[in-house]
Design brief:
Elements (H helix, E strand, L loop, with lengths): L1 H4 L6 H33 L4 H49 L3 H6 L2 H26 L1 H16 L1 H48 L1 H6 L3 H54 L4 H42 L22 E9 L6 E10 L4 E6 L5 H7 L8 E6 L2 E2 L5 H6 L1 E4 L8 E2 H6 L7 H10 L3 H5 L8 E2 L8 H13 L5 E5 L7 H14 L2 E5 L3 H5 L3 E6 L2 E6 L1 H7 L1 H11 L14
Helix pairs in contact: 2-3, 2-6, 2-10, 3-5, 5-7, 5-10, 6-7, 6-10, 7-9, 7-10, 9-10, 14-16, 19-20
């Protein structure tokens, strides 16, 4: 909690002003019962209208002052809470952006969205409520009791008996409510997760006519959230009847003993009215506590969830040794006895991987699903760290390079072509923010997408829907490749990112890449693609079982021969239609 409260330090002056305005409201609220007693005892009972008008006018005046203070307080409280939430949300986003892939495995997307939105909003509302109401309520209880004692200590003793029991009860409720509201936030994560999956996969859901199943999933998650929320709110609602029961009992006792004292002449009527007034205000303040408890309980649960993100240790950091700005990468890649297992698992997905790729070479990586091809790719830009061995770029371990400098010289096209909402130009610029239109068009030409873009009504200004829903799979892949090429990388990693291209388009693309002369690694399942490369690596169960050119492997590798015959038959590739889409 202290770490979160530290975000309020820049707004200490604004908070101080807000608190001063709160104390003005509090002072007015504490003075009014005394003024009311004065009006009753010295004015109404003495039938002196001038006293009534005098003190009544003062009451109206300070009430207007309290009204103005309340409006100003709301302004300052709102400014503080909004700025506080903005700062937390900004730092949360920055922290998540710095997460490694293994860090992201700890939190699914839905919970991160909930923590950055709903949880931060809970904290924002709590700060606002604290500056506006939550601080005034306990102060009103404390000073209300003091003022009641100053008016008449004997009658005020009725409050002393009741208040401690109420405070213990409220502490118990708050402790229990925190755990319940933490569960509510987790249920909200589940609802957001189901919604995100459904909105992302709406086309697939419609294609498989599985909307009933997905609707049921959502209903179940939504019902769990509703049930947990109801359970939590019921506990909070229990506080109000208990508070009213005890406080109304105190009021009855004060009225009973007060009437006896008035009859005996020991107490004035105004004093009884003042104490009843203070008791009523204290009851109202305690009534607000059910609302305060709910907000603070939810805020505590949200604080724990936000702090969990902040406290997550990023396990992929640059070493504190003297990192150097190495010259522009030439493109040599070396794997030396590399073992790799995903964080949190003991199963090695790569074992004793050793190979070397010279600058400008093109290498194809073939293997069955789950053989470790993508895992191998992710080690080159250091998205994960190796368990054992070394990955070197130009004979320098990737761990000894600055991450930013390393990744700027690598063009990575992932297996899933992910485009962002915006124009085609914006998506290609994502690879290099300061690229000129000529550079964008040149990258698009090399990616074999320029002619397609030119045929669109708005050309490069054509707006792409979310995740490129208005483009074909091949178009999305080629725009993704153009995005990687526009940064002029010396190393290009294509993770099965030509799977939706026909053979003719793919052949042109590979020819362009050869002319560009960058070091290119291609994960592919197509022998036609592999045949056009300098070297082919065969992976099976995380191990390199063979490597060499197409001619070498067709003679020496039974695995390669089997894949070759599966795609072309025994008679060879001449019987396959070169325009066929694979």
């Amino acid at each position: 909690m202290i770490r979160i409260l530290a975000y309020l330090r820049p707004y200490r002056l604004v908070i101080t002003v807000a608190l001063l305005l709160t104390f003005v409201e509090l002072a007015v609220e504490l003075l009014q019962p005394l003024l009311m007693a004065k009006i009753i005892d010295d004015g109404i009972l003495q039938k002196d209208l001038s006293v009534v008008l005098k003190w009544g006018g003062i009451m109206v005046g300070i009430s207007i002052l309290a009204f103005i203070s309340g409006i100003a307080n709301s302004f300052f409280a709102s400014h503080t809470s909004q700025s506080f939430a903005y700062d937390i949300r900004k730092d949360l986003f920055t922290k998540i952006q710095s997460f490694s892939f293994s860090n992201l495995q700890k939190f699914d997307t839905a919970t991160l969205i909930t923590r950055m939105t709903n949880d931060v909003t809970q904290l924002q509302n709590t700060v606002f409520m604290s500056l506006r109401i939550a601080i005034r309520a306990p102060m009103l209880i404390i000073f209300g009791m003091i003022m009641a004692f100053l008016v008449n200590a004997k009658l005020a003793m009725m409050l002393i008996v009741t208040i401690p029991f109420l405070i213990l009860f409220l502490v118990f409720i708050m402790t229990k409510a925190r755990r319940l509201f933490q569960s509510v936030q987790q249920k909200l994560d589940s609802v957001n997760g189901v919604m995100r999956e459904n909105l992302s996969g709406m086309r697939l859901i419609k294609a498989f006519v599985s909307w009933r199943h997905e609707t049921q999933r959502f209903f179940q998650a939504n019902e769990d959230l509703k049930d947990q929320t109801i359970k939590s709110l019921r506990l909070i609602e229990l506080t109000m009847p208990v508070l009213l029961l005890l406080m109304n009992g105190s009021i009855i006792a004060i009225l009973w003993f007060g009437s006896l004292d008035v009859s005996s002449g020991n107490v004035q009527v105004g004093e009884v009215v003042a104490i009843i007034n203070y008791t009523t205000r204290i009851t109202g303040a305690l009534g607000v506590f059910s609302w305060i408890i709910m907000h603070f309980s939810r805020a505590k649960a949200s604080t724990d969830r936000v702090i969990e993100v902040f406290d997550t240790e990023i396990d992929l950091v640059e070493a504190n040794t003297e990192l150097k700005n190495f010259p522009k990468t030439a493109g040599k890649i070396t794997f030396s006895h590399v073992d790799f297992a995903y964080p949190g698992t003991n199963t090695k997905v790569l074992q004793d991987i050793t190979f070397s790729v010279q600058p400008g070479e093109t290498v194809a990586i073939l293997g069955a699903t789950g053989s470790g091809k993508t895992s191998l790719f992710q080690l080159i830009p250091r998205l994960y760290d190796v368990v054992q061995g070394n990955v070197l770029i130009d004979d320098v371990d990737v761990k000894d390079r600055k991450l930013k400098e390393l990744r700027k010289q690598i063009g990575y096209v992932p297996q899933e072509a992910l485009l962002f909402t915006g124009t085609i130009k914006d998506n290609i610029l994502w690879g290099k923010q300061d690229a000129s239109l000529e550079e964008i068009m040149f990258a698009a030409k090399r990616a074999q997408i320029h002619e397609t873009i030119e045929k669109l009504p708005l050309q490069y200004e054509t707006v792409i829907g979310q995740k490129g829903v208005n483009l074909s799979g091949g178009q999305k892949q080629r725009i993704s490749i153009a995005r990687a090429l526009v940064r002029e990388p010396k190393i290009l990693l294509l993770d099965d990112s030509t799977s939706a291209l026909d053979l003719q388009t793919e052949a042109k693309l590979l020819e362009e890449l050869k002319n560009y002369s960058c070091t290119t690694l291609i994960i592919t399942s197509k022998i036609y693609t592999a045949m056009a490369t300098d070297t082919i690596l065969l992976l099976e169960d995380g191990k390199i079982i063979a490597s060499g050119s197409h001619d070498e492997l067709i003679e020496s590798s039974p695995f390669y021969q089997k894949v070759y015959e599966t795609q072309f038959g025994e008679e060879g590739p001449q019987h396959v239609n070169a325009n066929e889409s694979i």
